[in-house]
């Protein structure tokens, strides 16, 4: 019995040491992360006349289409509808681009992985952080647009920054898992792309949280991404005046739960990646 307890305790300590070692390595290579992020941004828009503006054009085009569909087909005429959609489309773009780029981050840098000894978890993190730069630019545009519309920003808008942090941690955790699995099973990339298309309809983008049936709401809010995306709307905008529906308040409990789930996903992703990191050069 004592041996079993000792073995269990040692296993827990071993996992803790691996996590601390991974976090320490990431911190030590923060300068490399910074260099790779800006290198990726430069290469992505090399010889593009509009440069980084291309990170804004696709989501803005999507907002334009959604406004037309919702206003003219669903007959839902809300004030500042475009701003409601911008809040969530930019957040979705950040998530989906981070996951897809993170998924193939090891494969895209195969020569780098084989040639140099460095913590490989840096690469999925770089993919997420480069998309974070795009997201921050998008959010700056959104804030400017809200000022033009004369939308009154309350103090609660400051909580957007913790929400961005939580979503970033969630993206990094998923990217760490998917990137190493994609090296071994290339199907993961296609499965992820398909799953994202389904997930688009499982988060409040085309609709509002008030549209979700109450009997499903608790289950629905277990999805951290749905919580984060809805939080952007409620922190930056006023409650949507939906006919026949009572506006919902900000759900701080589920926001805290989303943070906990995101942190758990990050730690699990780090452990999974650490377990397979040494085999990555052989699989490539």
Please give the structural blueprint:
Layout: H1 2-28, H2 30-44, H3 57-73, H4 81-103, H5 105-108, H6 110-115, H7 122-148, H8 160-184, H9 187-199, H10 214-220, H11 224-236, H12 252-276, H13 280-283
Helix pairs in contact: 1-12, 2-7, 3-4, 4-7, 4-8, 4-9, 4-11, 7-8, 8-11, 8-12, 11-12
List keywords for this structure.
73% helix, 284 residues, 13 helices, mainly alpha
Task: Explain what this protein looks like in three dimensions.
- The structure is a single chain.
- The chain is about 75% helix and about 0% strand.
- The chain has about 280 residues and is mainly alpha-helical.
- The chain has one domain.
- About 5% of the residues have low confidence.
Brief summary:
This protein is mainly alpha-helical.
- For the secondary structure, the number of strands is 0
Helix content: over 70%
Uncertain residue ranges: 4-12
Distance between the termini: 43 Å
Net shape: globular
β-strand percent reads under 5%
The run of helices and strands is HHHHHHHHHHHHH
Largest sheet: none
Rg (C-alpha, Å)? 21 Å
Number of spatially distinct domains: 1
Structural class: mainly alpha
| Structure annotation, total helices | 13
Overall mean pLDDT stands at: 85
């Amino acid at each position: 019995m004592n041996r079993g307890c000792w073995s269990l305790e040692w296993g827990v300590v071993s996992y803790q040491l691996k996590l601390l070692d991974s976090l320490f390595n990431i911190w030590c290579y923060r300068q490399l992360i910074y260099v790779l992020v800006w290198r990726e941004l430069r290469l992505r828009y090399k010889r593009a006349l509009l440069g980084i503006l291309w990170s804004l054009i696709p989501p803005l085009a999507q907002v334009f289409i959604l406004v037309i569909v919702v206003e003219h087909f669903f007959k839902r005429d809300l004030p500042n509808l475009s701003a409601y959609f911008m809040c969530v489309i930019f957040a979705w773009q950040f998530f989906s681009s981070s996951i897809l780029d993170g998924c193939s981050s090891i494969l895209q840098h195969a020569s780098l992985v084989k040639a140099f000894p460095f913590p490989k978890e840096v690469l999925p993190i770089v993919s997420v952080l480069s998309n974070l730069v795009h997201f921050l630019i998008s959010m700056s545009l959104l804030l400017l647009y809200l000022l033009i519309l004369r939308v009154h920003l309350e103090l609660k808008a400051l909580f957007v920054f913790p929400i961005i942090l939580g979503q970033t941690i969630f993206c990094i955790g998923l990217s760490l898992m998917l990137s190493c699995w994609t090296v071994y099973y290339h199907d993961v990339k296609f499965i992820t792309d398909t799953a994202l298309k389904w997930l688009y309809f499982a988060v409040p983008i085309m609709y509002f949280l008030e549209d979700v049936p109450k009997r499903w709401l608790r289950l629905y809010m277990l999805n951290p991404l749905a919580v984060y995306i809805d939080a952007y709307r409620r922190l930056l905008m006023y409650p949507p005046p939906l006919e026949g529906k009572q506006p919902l308040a900000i759900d701080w409990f589920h926001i805290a739960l989303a943070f906990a789930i995101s942190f758990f996903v990050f730690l699990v992703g780090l452990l999974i990646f650490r377990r397979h990191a040494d085999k990555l050069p052989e699989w490539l």
